[in-house]
Specification:
Number of strands: 16
Helix content: 25-40%
Order of helices and strands: HHHEEEHEHEEEEEHHEEEHEEHEHEH
Shape: elongated
Number of domains: 2
Distance between the termini: 11 Å
CATH superfamily of the largest domain: Zn peptidases
Radius of gyration: 24 Å
Amino acid sequence: MIRPEHIQELAATIQLDVVAHRRHLHMHPELSFHEHKTAAYVSEFLKKAGISCSGGIAGTGVVGIIEGTNPGKKVVALRADMDALPIHELGSAPYKSQNPGVMHACGHDAHTASLLGAATILNRLRDQFEGTVKLIFQPAEEKLPGGASMMIQEGVLKNPTPDCIFGQHVMPHIPAGKVGFRSGTYMASTDELYLKVIGKGGHGAMPHMNIDPVLISSHLIIALQQVVSRNANPTVPSVLSFGKVIADGATNVIPDYVLIEGTFRTLSESWRSSAHDRMTTLAHQLVESMGGRLEFEIRKGYPVLVNDSELTGKARTRAVEYLGPENVTDLDIWMAAEDFAYYTHETKACFYRLGTRNESKGITSSVHTPTFDIEEDALQIGCGLMAWLTICELTE
């Protein structure tokens, strides 16, 4: 019987290798749907380790297969995302990005490195468990329509079909050495809103001769907030935010149109659909009532992420066995979004958090910032816990 101590020892022996993986990937980040060198790096490692793999899924996705004894008994999938963000990295770390304007600012380098480490551990133990492990190295978590949805469409959850899937994500608000879990609804859906308010431009001194899209847009942005404040059930978290408004006129020039971009997020798929209809109707009616014309596009993004209660409950208990109760915490809901959510609507899934904060080293920056970094000691837990959760599922 495989014990937690055995996995911990194996994770300790490969810690330097996992750190090396992470640093290599961090130095060579690639944007969504362009992870060609990253995919090649992953494939080469798996092949050298004797792990069967295939690439080119959803463009740059890679899938590896580790078969234990009696491979058909049960299948556990493990997922890591590989893409980076269009952010110029600050700081002077020796592993700083060598690709100007591109940075692993969301920890996907750590996710990929941890899964390579977990694959190493599980491959060494393949004669000691029954079943199959499916390793999913996914592109484009950061960009719609999301690499997860594309990999699913291309059959990543078939041949063999996983009985469950685990995903892991760094969390800079949790100290390194700890992990976090939440059963049920965890992360929000996300939709992108693109509006073009069309009026009639002209001289700012003669507003009566124009149809002012700037004025219309100001009313529209405020009015749309009532979709959340007065139409959403107060018990259902919802967020409507506009972060980009372009009115390319001048102090004395009223432009012909205004561009507005924003995001809508919620934790209810039914309310999400209803909100789309309410926003569209309200927006068109308001703009037209003020003499303008509206083009309104809602790009539907990732769904609500729902962790399977049974699987997540077991995973939390097993994390306590692996790390001790003082190092396992409960998570609150989070209105950020993750395309791992697509997997949660297809099979039993558990998406949990890996603490990476170290205040004594100044490693405190949030994800999606140019100073983001991780405490690399957390990678030993990153690879070890994922391997432990997999072993437990396959041997229960």
